[in-house]
Structures are given as C-alpha cells and as structure tokens.
Amino acid sequence: MELEQVEGRGLARRRVLGLLGLTAVALATGQAAAGASTAGRAPATLDLASNPASAAARWGGAVPFRRGRAMFGSYLSLHGRTLTQSLALRRRQLGRDQRIVHLYYPWSDYFPAAHPEVPADAVLMISWKGTKLSKITSGARDHHIAKMARLMADMKRPILLRWGWEMNGNWFSWDGVHNGKKPSAYIKAWRRMHRIFRQQGATNVAWVWAPNWNSGPDVSWNKFHHYYPGDAYVDWVGVSGYNFSKESPKRLFSPIVKAYGKRKPIMLAETAAIGHGSHTKARWIRKLSKYVSATPSIGAVVWFDTDTQRGTRRNFRPDTDAEALAAYRAMVRKPRFSG
Asked: Which positions are catalytic residues (predicted)?
C-alpha cells in the first residue's frame, strides 16, 4: 500500500500565503564558510561523529555540495504508476536519471529496511514528518528517534534528511503556531534529534533544514531565521516554494539564498509550477532554469512531480503539455543540473 505522504491542506494554505505577498524578512547574517569548495570539487571530508561543530565547515555533510553542479531530482507520485514505473517514464522523457529520489515518511510506525526501487547511484532524500515538539524535547520519543537513526545508518548510502519542514507555516503539528509560538522549541527538538543520530552512528545522513518561502502567520516571531538550529546542526538549507500566485523563482527563493547562501549550500527542496493559462508553466520553468544558473549557492533542485495530491486538483507534473516538458527537459539536461 502506498503511503499518503504529504498533507494536502499544507499546499492549499500555502496558496493563501502566496496571496499575501512577501513582506520584509529579517535575514540572519553570518560569516561565509571557510574553505568553500571550488568549482567541480567537493571540500575535504571531516569527522562529524567526533566533532559535530565541523558541520559548519563541511559544505553538504554526507552529501557534498559541488559548486556549479546542482543535483536534480523529484518526489514522484504519478497516477496509475508505481515509483519504478514513474522513474522509467521520466528517464525516457528526459534522457537522464534522477540524481535525487525524494520520499516522505510518517513520524510513527514506518521503518523500512531498504528502498530497492531507488537506484543505487541516486541520493535518497527523506522528508520525515514530525510531531508535537514537547514529545521530542521531553525525551519521550528518544527510542523512536534512535530506531530511525539506526535504520538510516544501516542503509549504508548517503541520505538527505529533511525533518520537520515548513516549520514557519501553520499547517503541521511541529510548526510554531501549534507549539506555543516558540521557535526555540523547534531548535531544541532538532538538536536533540541530531545528537541521537550522531550517537547511533548515522553519519551518512545530511541534515536539511527547510522552511517555507514565506511565513504563516507573517509576523515577526514566526520568521524563518528564528527556527534555524545553528550551522553545526545543518548541512543543507532548503526551501519550499511554488508559483501559486504567479511568484517568480527569484521572489520565492532569494530571501533564503541571501540569508544562508554564503554559509550553506541551498536546496530548492520542494518546488513545481502550476499553469496559469497557455504557455505559463513552460515560461516559469525557463525562468527557474535561468535563476538557478545565476545562483551558484544552489546545489540541489527537487521537483514535486505529482498529479495525485490529496486535497487539491492542481497538477504539478512537468509534462502536462509538450511545451512545458520541452522546457523541463532542456533545463535538467544543462551542465548546471548535472551534480
């Protein structure tokens, strides 16, 4: 049985947020990471198990960042097709494989030992849902977290772990609105989980911190930078953003890039275009291609490739029309997307 992997109400509410527009964002500042990698070459490996603070110096952690080479991949859930069939379809259409295969895990009662449908040379990205933060910060779920950490360690492959995403929204049990309007509780939970994973030997896991592009509610305490766990606890900074209200890629992603792009590799962790009339999806994809090409700190782009999203009739697939598919194919076959 396939898991219902994303809550549809999140996407619906993000549409409302898009209508509110992007207000001024208080941006976190910091020093540029020392020893940033040069084009085409990853930085040296550091021992995260013995020195968690070294994560601040190693760009990408267990999944290294390559400047000028963005990894490209998708969450794939296509009507009437298995993941294996969907991967094969996109391979035929695009003439290339997905570098990142994105899956969603529920918080509880799901402990897969392996993912044979995910190619061995692909990077597995797991978006793991959260829970009420007090259940984590109290230590009540330490055994559960440790079990998942051991499972991921035993997979013996690089994993991008995107836990508790879009924490600055108001549609998930782990967000600030549902946890007393205290972003500090999210930070405490994140750091506790990070420590447990390290203790269980899950050094193959790269941690992806990924807020929504704008906050809901759009008030000072809920700005994304208040939820940042710290450089030592984050390997990649991700962001979710869609053109629900015809936002451009620059409008969606520039605040995160400006805030963290000199300190961490950036991932467009959840993005896609919906159509707003003839030719609009293709035009947006071409704009995205240009934006990523002009933004060297972006090291990964992950498309939300589905036509089966519960709670919405939107179609996020890039092949809804021939022009959109051609633009998508041209984008992902550029050297910039060959990471």
From this structure: 166 (proton donor), 270 (nucleophile)
pTM: 0.85
Cβ–Cβ under 8 Å, residues 238 and 268:
yes
Contact 160, 206 (CB under 8 A): yes
DSSP string covering 211-241, please? -BSS-SS-SGGG-GGGG---GGG-SEEEEEE
C-alpha to C-alpha distance for 232 and 249, rounded to whole angstroms: 28
Of 31, 265, 52, 315, the residue nearest 160 (C-alpha):
265
Q: What is the pLDDT of residues 184-209, one digit of tens each?
A: 999 999 999 999 999 999 999 999 99
Is 162 in contact with 238 (CB distance < 8 Å)? yes
Q: Residues with catalytic annotation?
A: 166, 270
Q: Are the C-beta atoms of residues 311 and 11 closer than 8 Å to each other?
A: yes
CATH code of domain 8-23+59-337: 3.20.20.80
pLDDT tens sequence across 78-108: 999 999 999 999 999 999 999 999 999 999 9
Alpha-carbon Rg for the chain in angstroms: 19
d(CA 152, CA 161): 10
Q: Where are the domains of the chain?
A: 8-23+59-337
User: In the structure, how many helices (H) and strands (E) does the chain have?
Assistant: 8, 8
Kindly give the pairing relationship between strand 266-272 and strand 236-242. Answer: parallel
- Burial classification of residue 180, based on how many CB atoms lie within 10 Å of its CB (0-12 exposed, 13-18 middle, 19 or more buried): exposed
CA distance 49 to 55: 10
Q: H helices within 21-172, ranges in order? A: 83-94, 133-137, 142-155
Reported as type and span, the H/E element at residue 261 is none
